[in-house]
């Protein structure tokens, strides 16, 4: 099949790729006014139905008093103005304080997780760039964590992290004797480490996959030219590979950041409904604020704040990273 | 590190440090990756006593009992079928819709093009929890207004999941279609195909790796989702990701059964994924990495 | 162009908001109908060893009901982890079952949503009258002074389950009656190398049930008489500390229990790994795990001193399951008939025997099956020394907040950190501040 043709085409087109962004001339026959909108319609309708309208409703909910007394007929629930937001951002009071702490934990967790995922993924992709025996096998193997369903993967880690019958304590305590007594991984402070390990284990293959794909787009001639200049392996990586990967990395890091920050499945399966304080990620925290304490108004307000934060970060990130590129066609 | 950057013997030959660091790194990484896989496989073959007592690397005796028991402890087969239907349908729909949308963006200039792409991508930012309840209410209201049962049905879940994977899919396919030479569809147009004919006969075949990559992504997204499935399904429509929790709500934690069931539900996805990974890399190379 | 875009966006938003106010939750105020008299949907909670086991228990009874009334009952057994969420979404959307099981401690909270049919005199008459039920069970059906939100279905209480063999080996002749005795006995068992007491440290619900009883024994309550949370009184703090100290100071609960949340402590007991367990109606559960009745003894939960009774001698919460009807059911008469059927003397005997619970119906309770052996202890406890959990609208938040605080305290204890009066008070104070402002 034509598996490699487009890839080559992409490589060949790469230098002129940026031209695709600016308005270009097309044969008049393609440009029919209605057609593009028609093609977009299904996607548009579904995005509206499942994402945008519910989100607008969610934002509206954040201005309502939606406790158990009103959820049954929440169209008639009293408007509460900015009360839910005030409660959420009053960092001297327990609710706001807990939210702020959860936020910082999430930020720290996300930065560490994304950083490690990227580091491991990039290193693995670089090491697997040359052919050697077993390379295909390793490549397949490395994708397994990514391919495993989240539930199956995380529940296996839950088993491994058990205090009495888990593998982690068996190795660290019984076999290596690194700890005085078996540690707890799913409660208490260690739970942050546990969460990070699982998240990195599950997430790095995606970075690996993308970087691997990105590496294939770097023309061989660049390496050859550098080699002729006397650059060694490590210098080639530093001078050619990493800079060439920049656009790939920019997108990769953003996507990883958003996914990790909003991840609900991993902490939920790992810890259940009430996460330990040390690993109280914001997604689970908001879930708890809404579903466990039955205050959907405050939960929505927290979600909106989270959304605003992500918008600002993403916007800022895109602004920062697009500087120096060709100005986009706004 | 830079101490190794002495003039190499031949232009492309990596230094010795590269080889030993590669060996160490890949060995450690393989161990890290395989550890849970080993636990999953070996524990699924253990008798219950082996998984409730101190951890054992290998079963004290091999038993396939867990693999027999998993089907009767919970209605695993039904969950399996549900997941297949939901994830399969969501994947097909998502891919078709994404292909259309990506083609429109890649090949046409139209007002709102940029707004569309930015909006679609920005939905990746939405915290799921924010629209879980509203979405549920919308489905209920649609159900009451039109009689189409979306809530609690597989249909509602399919609809939800396909939009989860849509943004990333569209975005990837735009990149991929951009890399398919425009001359191809222009030639098809000259041959008398309409724009849709050009899409289906020329662009789609040339973009198979990208489409496969998108399909794999969509399938995995739907196969593993927990939050929406836990609220929007009932006993007859429950999917695996939620249904598997049935093993730990019992009055004993049957780790061997949990591991066996996890393995059973993972094998089809992992096998499919590994079979298609060639396409995946090729698809990402041209698509996501533009 | 920019203007039109903004205008479109504005128009869309406005129309959405209109739609939003129009679509509330389901049929909001109507009190149910009889539009679909032939079918009922029933959500059962998971009472037996597994969901499948529950279906085997309930299906024949539901068939019996269909034979009697011609009403077909669609059964869904919902795991505890999902039940409250499912009820909440059902209440929010109006799309729910006709009849459902609720944990009896949720009664007041769910009552506040207004989604459940109030059991006024007329409704009670339809099922044979309020007098058929025992008072302690009726005490856990909703806020005081309001019509109950549900009808008692199964009653349970806590008891001390002990392993006869381990007790004999340690030279213990009778089960402990006070906490001091329990600790002393625990030490004896540990001296023999055994593990003394099991606990479900990471399960907020179990935690809350225990600290509630301890608080009663200290003469304290988590709520003031007018329903305000009061978690930081000396009695409450001492109560919580006493419970956590079983692991932290007395060390008769193994640290590993701090992460138990999936009934591992029951398995431990059934496998003979721990000598004692505080649990509600565990007999059927233990039997299903291969522990026969002669292997364990059942005794009342210890008190501070003296014998179990009212007031500070309370030694259990009133545990149990209530049966509720969704207010907007489309088969109101059928739902009432179904509740009548499920609470009939005959069905009460069958179901409560299957689940090793105690019937909250007086006539059924008098049956010999519930007055012997383990059941006698449980029934006695329910009748004399069990107290209902606070019947306040914020009960479920209270369970979560305090139960989680205790979970964190257990985690501290397990990690070897000191659990002091101050640290307990700080944790409880935080929990109290998480309660909805009044």
Tell me what you see in this structure:
The complex is a heterotrimer of chains A (330), B (290) and C (438). Chain A is mainly α and 330 residues long. Helices cover 67% and strands 0% of the residues of chain A. Chain A has 13 helices and no strands. The radius of gyration of chain A is 24 Å and the shape is globular. Chain B has helices spanning 16-43, 48-52, 65-73, 76-107, 113-122, 128-146, 154-179, 182-190, 195-206, 208-224, 227-232, 240-243, 255-286. Chain B has two domains: 2-43; 70-286, MetI-like (MetI-like fold, Orthogonal Bundle), CATH 1.10.3720. Residues 1-11 of chain B have low confidence and may be disordered. In chain B, helix 5 (113-122) crosses helix 7 (154-179). The longest helix of chain B has 32 residues, at 76-107. Chain B has 13 helices and no strands. Chain B is mainly alpha-helical. Chain C has 438 residues and is of the alpha/beta class. Chain C folds into two domains: 39-156 and 319-386, D-Maltodextrin-Binding Protein, domain 2, CATH 3.40.190.10; 158-317 and 394-433, Periplasmic binding protein-like II (D-Maltodextrin-Binding Protein, domain 2), CATH 3.40.190. Chain C is built from 18 helices and eleven strands. Chain C has helices at residues 2-22, 51-69, 80-93, 107-113, 121-126, 135-138, 164-169, 179-191, 204-217, 234-248, 264-270, 283-288, 332-342, 345-354, 362-365, 373-384, 395-414, 421-433, and strands at residues 39-45, 72-78, 99-103, 151-156, 158-163, 195-198, 274-280, 296-299, 316-317, 319-325, 386-387. Chain C has a five-stranded mixed beta sheet. Chain C has a four-stranded mixed beta sheet with strand order 6-7-5-8. In chain C, helix 9 (204-217) packs across helix 10 (234-248), helix 10 (234-248) packs across helix 17 (395-414) and helix 10 packs across helix 18 (421-433). Residues 9-30 of chain C have low confidence and may be disordered. The interface between A and B is large, with 121 and 119 residues.
């Amino acid at each position: 099949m034509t598996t490699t043709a487009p890839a080559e085409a992409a490589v060949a087109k790469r230098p002129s790729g940026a031209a695709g962004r600016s308005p270009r001339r097309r044969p008049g026959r393609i440009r029919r006014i209605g057609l593009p909108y028609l093609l977009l319609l299904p996607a548009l309708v579904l995005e509206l139905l499942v994402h945008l309208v519910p989100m607008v409703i969610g934002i509206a909910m954040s201005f309502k008093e939606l406790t158990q007394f009103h959820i049954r007929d929440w169209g008639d629930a009293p408007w509460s103005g900015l009360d839910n937001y005030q409660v959420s951002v009053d960092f001297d009071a327990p609710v706001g304080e807990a939210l702020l702490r959860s936020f910082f934990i999430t930020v720290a967790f996300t930065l560490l997780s994304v950083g490690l995922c990227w580091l491991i993924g990039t290193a693995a992709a670089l090491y697997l760039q040359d052919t050697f025996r077993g390379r295909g096998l390793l490549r397949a193997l490395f994708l397994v964590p990514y391919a495993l369903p989240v539930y199956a993967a995380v529940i296996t880690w839950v088993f491994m992290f058990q205090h009495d019958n888990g593998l982690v304590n068996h190795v660290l305590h019984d076999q290596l004797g690194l700890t005085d007594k078996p540690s707890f991984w799913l409660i208490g402070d260690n739970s942050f480490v546990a969460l990070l390990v699982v998240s990195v284990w599950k997430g790095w293959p995606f970075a690996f996959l993308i970087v691997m794909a990105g590496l294939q787009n770097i023309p061989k001639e660049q390496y050859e030219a550098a080699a002729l200049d006397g650059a060694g392996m490590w210098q080639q990586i530093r001078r050619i590979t990493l800079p060439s990967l920049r656009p790939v990395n920019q997108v990769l890091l953003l996507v990883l950041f958003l996914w990790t920050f909003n991840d609900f499945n991993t902490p939920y399966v790992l810890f259940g409904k009430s996460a330990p304080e040390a690993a109280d990620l914001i997604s689970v925290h908001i879930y708890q604020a809404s579903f466990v304490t039955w205050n959907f108004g405050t939960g929505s307000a927290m979600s909106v704040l989270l959304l605003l934060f992500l918008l600002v970060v993403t916007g800022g990130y895109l602004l920062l990273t697009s500087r120096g590129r060709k100005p986009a066609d706004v | 590190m830079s101490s190794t950057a002495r003039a190499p013997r031949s232009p492309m030959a990596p230094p010795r440090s590269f080889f030993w660091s590669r060996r160490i790194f890949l060995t450690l990484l393989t161990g890290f990756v395989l550890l849970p896989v080993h636990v999953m496989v070996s524990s699924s073959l253990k008798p219950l006593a082996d998984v409730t007592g101190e951890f054992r690397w290998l079963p004290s005796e091999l038993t396939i009992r867990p693999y027999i028991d998993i089907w009767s402890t919970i209605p695993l087969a039904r969950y399996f079928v549900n997941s297949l239907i939901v994830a399969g349908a969501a994947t097909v729909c998502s891919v078709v819709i994404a292909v259309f949308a990506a083609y429109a963006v890649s090949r046409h200039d139209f007002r709102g093009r940029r707004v569309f792409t930015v909006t679609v991508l920005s939905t990746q930012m939405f915290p799921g929890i924010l629209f879980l309840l509203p979405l549920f209410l919308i489905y209920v209201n649609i159900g009451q207004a039109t009689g189409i049962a979306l809530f609690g049905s597989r249909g509602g879940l399919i609809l939800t999941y396909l939009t989860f994977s849509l943004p990333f899919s569209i975005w990837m396919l735009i990149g991929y279609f951009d890399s398919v030479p425009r001359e191809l569809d222009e030639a098809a147009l000259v041959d008398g195909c309409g724009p849709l004919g050009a899409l289906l006969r020329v662009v789609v075949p040339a973009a198979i790796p990208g489409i496969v990559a998108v399909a794999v992504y969509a399938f995995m997204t739907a196969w593993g989702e927990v939050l929406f499935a836990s609220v929007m399904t009932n006993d007859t429509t429950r999917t695996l990701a939620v249904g598997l929790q049935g093993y730990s709500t019992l009055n004993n934690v049957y780790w061997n059964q949990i591991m066996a069931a996890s393995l059973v539900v993972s094998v089809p996805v992992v096998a499919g994924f590994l079979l298609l990974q060639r396409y995946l890399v090729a698809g990402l190379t041209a698509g996501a990495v533009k | 162009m920019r203007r039109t875009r903004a205008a479109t966006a504005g128009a869309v938003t406005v129309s959405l908001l209109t739609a939003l106010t129009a679509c509330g939750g389901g049929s909001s105020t109507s009190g149910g109908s009889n539009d679909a008299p032939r079918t009922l949907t029933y959500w059962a909670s998971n009472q037996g060893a597994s969901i499948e086991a529950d279906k085997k228990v309930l299906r024949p009874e539901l068939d019996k009901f269909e034979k009697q009334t011609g009403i077909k009952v669609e059964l869904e057994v919902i795991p505890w982890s999902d039940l409250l969420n499912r009820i909440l979404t059902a209440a929010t959307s109006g799309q729910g079952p006709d009849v459902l099981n609720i944990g009896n401690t949720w009664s007041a909270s769910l009552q506040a949503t207004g989604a459940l049919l109030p059991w006024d005199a007329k409704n009670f008459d339809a099922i044979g009258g309020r007098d058929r039920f025992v008072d302690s069970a009726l005490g856990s059906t909703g806020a005081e002074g309001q019509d109950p939100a549900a009808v008692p279905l199964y009653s349970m209480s806590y008891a001390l389950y002990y392993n006869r063999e381990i007790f004999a080996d340690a030279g213990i002749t009778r089960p402990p009656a006070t906490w001091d005795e329990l600790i002393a006995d625990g030490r004896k068992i540990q001296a023999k190398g055994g593990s003394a007491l099991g606990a479900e440290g990471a399960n907020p619900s179990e935690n809350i049930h225990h600290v509630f009883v301890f608080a009663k024994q200290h003469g304290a309550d988590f709520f003031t008489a007018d329903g305000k949370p009061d978690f930081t009184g000396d009695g409450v703090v001492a109560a919580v500390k006493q419970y956590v100290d079983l692991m932290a100071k007395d060390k008769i609960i193994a640290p590993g229990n701090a992460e138990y949340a999936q009934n591992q402590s029951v398995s431990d007991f059934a496998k003979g790994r721990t000598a004692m367990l505080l649990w509600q109606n565990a007999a059927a559960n233990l039997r299903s795990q291969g522990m026969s009745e002669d292997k364990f003894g059942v005794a009342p939960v210890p008190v501070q001193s003296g014998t179990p009774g009212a007031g500070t001698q309370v030694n259990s919460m009133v545990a149990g399951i209530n049966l509720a009807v969704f207010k907007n059911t489309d088969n109101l008469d059928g739902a009432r008939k179904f509740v009548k059927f499920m609470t009939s003397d005959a069905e009460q005997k069958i179901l409560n025997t299957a689940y090793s619970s105690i019937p909250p119906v007086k006539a059924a309770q008098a049956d010999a099956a519930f007055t012997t052996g383990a059941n006698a202890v449980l029934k006695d406890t329910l009748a004399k020394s069990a107290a209902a959990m606070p019947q306040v609208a914020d009960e479920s938040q209270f369970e979560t907040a305090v139960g989680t605080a205790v979970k964190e305290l257990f985690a501290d204890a397990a990690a070897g950190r000191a659990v002091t009066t101050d640290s307990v008070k700080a944790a409880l104070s935080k929990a109290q501040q998480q309660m909805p402002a009044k």
